[in-house]
Amino acid sequence: MDRRFATFLALSALVLLVNILLMKWLAPPPGQNQPARQQAAVEEARRRAKAAKKKKQAPAKEEQEKEAKPEVEAAAKSVPQSWHALGSLDDSKPYRMLAVFNNRGAALESVELNSSRFHDLEDRSGYLGRLNAVDAKGANGCIVRIVGAGTPADRAGMKIDDVIVAVDGAPVAGAKALESILGRTKPGQTIELSIERGGKARKLTATLARRPLAVIRPETTDMAKESEGEPMEAHPGRTKPQDMHPLSFLLTLESIDGDAIPQDEEELLGLHLRTANWTARPSDPKKPDEIAFEIVLPDYELRIVKTFGLAKLSAEAQGDIDAPAYHLNFAVEIENLGQEEREVAYRLDGPTGLPTEGWWYAYSSKIGREWFSSPGIRDPVAGYVSGKTFQHSQVNAQRIADEKLPPDWTDPLVYLGVDAQYFASVLIPQRQNDQGQWAASTLPIEKAYPTRVGPIPEDKGKKKLVDASCRLVSSKAMLAPNGGTLTEHFKIFAGPKRPELLAKYAAPYGLGELVYYGWFGSVSRPMLWLLHTFYSVVQNYGIAIIMLTVLVRSGMFPLSRKQALNAAKMQELQPEMKRLAEKYKGNLEQRTKAQQELYRKHKFHPLSGCLPAFIQLPIFLGLYRSLAVDIELRQAPLLGEAIRWCSNLAAPDMLWDWAPYLPAYFAGKTGWLGPFLNVLPLVTISLFIWQQKMFLPPPADEQAALQQKMMQYMMIFMGVMFFKVPSGLCLYFIASSLWGITERKLLPKAKPPAAPTALKPVAPPGGNGSASRKKQKERDRK
To answer: Would you say residue 77 lies in a domain?
Structure first.
């Protein structure tokens, strides 16, 4: 018995000793080296205690915040998700757009332009409207969550919470089924909708429209089409939140009383402003074009309000396409409800989901400002004042995909946004002057920087599709107790990149830097002015391009005539050149001198034909940039909108979709030639080769023959490189080639080759002239 008791005591002491040693190893006293995870936990506890002290809350409550996250999310869910719309898709109304807002994060979800100039160029199916439909519970059909004014659904009498059960008698099994049915329709088609409203069946008749261009839209990646790299539009009503890209203009608090967002985190611990459902304030009858969302943070005694107001056109500006109404007025208000002063800063995200139309050919059209990286489809931009100088900065989205970000922008901000090829959305700070008028102003900020809101495509060829955005971090502001407020005002521009329109925003700096022609802007702008002038006469941009080509070639006729005569003279001298090549086959120096003597005799300079080419080069590049950048050519058809071929002069002509029949590396959207057979580039290259064969003189030797063959191969290579250029540029090439051929045909023909003439022998350098002539005569006799 005593032995067992002694053994028990010994084992107990051993266990106690081992426990003490383990505790000292796992939890050393402060000041000793701790494992990184434990050290981070200590720092987090200290941070929480500091924040709790500032808020005069018990530390236990602060420690419970992380565990209370489900309760916070449950509270957010107590406010149901809802959608709200401002504006109209009816262009007869005094608006330029239809804007849809989501109370989840109080975000701007989409902006659709109502002008017939700006339709979606890729989706040609019938458009009923943005419905954000969700599957009906326990029955077939789908529930409509939003009906925008002026949409075909609105004109048909559809209301929010209607349940669509059938389309033209075909049952609708859910939201995806509705999307599939509508995807097989055409604009102008009339459909019958069977709906249920308040438990009663109804019939509605809707005439579908063409889908409008969405400058901002919710976006996700459809896994079924990920191999093609197509960013697909998200449907917030039925898409899983984790699959969606963040929406536009989300806001959260960057810091509260010095407690800042940890690195690589989206929000402060316990805050969910980006994902919570904000409360939509009741609409004010005096402000029908405005909507406000608010959220209260009880733990911090703060109220945050986001207000959006849509610009409205005056009656006089209704027909002016460049009237400055492509924007929303946006305000951020942070109010201190507590009894103590608070220091706060906010973080505001920029626009997301800008258009990606034509991403597979836009690489040949869009030009970036950075030397060592290619532009993306959507590039973050910023305008700021550095010292007293205005600066415009563009970050190519390819760098964002490669995670090679530039330094943050820290200078006073003029605007911040995202630039697509033909459209842009930017945030413009506003200040009120002494007369009570709002105007653009620089905004002191802590920093601003580009960011990414979607996944990075693994395929290098698809990295240009990354959904790039930007982020603004405000300077810290002190809020007085009992109602102290921080209010910031902005304009959100979301519209086309028309130079005349952009100049009316962000005065005095303007948004004109969003339209970039590269090095030859001084040539591009006059070319565009002439092009638009011709269009105002003929009302067809295809014909206007041909007229511009004729004008340019007419102005260059003296140079091209000299070039043609020079080529004819070269052809006339070919027999003599051939004889000299044979005579001085083994003596290159003698042959060169003899050729120069021949040129002097006939007053011919072999390089004189290059001058017109050098003069034409900047004109060609300037015209190329103008045709690629000008938004007026987007959606401009060659023959008419009813014909799909060549219906967009800013894109390839796209005669036939051959992608299903050819390998992806050849005919995929990242393939060599793209998914369409384009006819105009083939015609262009054929004319180039024909010109070359018609007007190049016969080769004088094997080297010249090899050079001409290389030129033919280069033409074929150019055909591959130019296969996806805008069809408007191909029209210029074709018209220019036909002009050149006609010009050559009308010029005097080259004289028939004359009999070889005796040439004055050329003395070798440094030798006796008479002795050299004797030797030359002896060689001639031999």
So the answer is: no
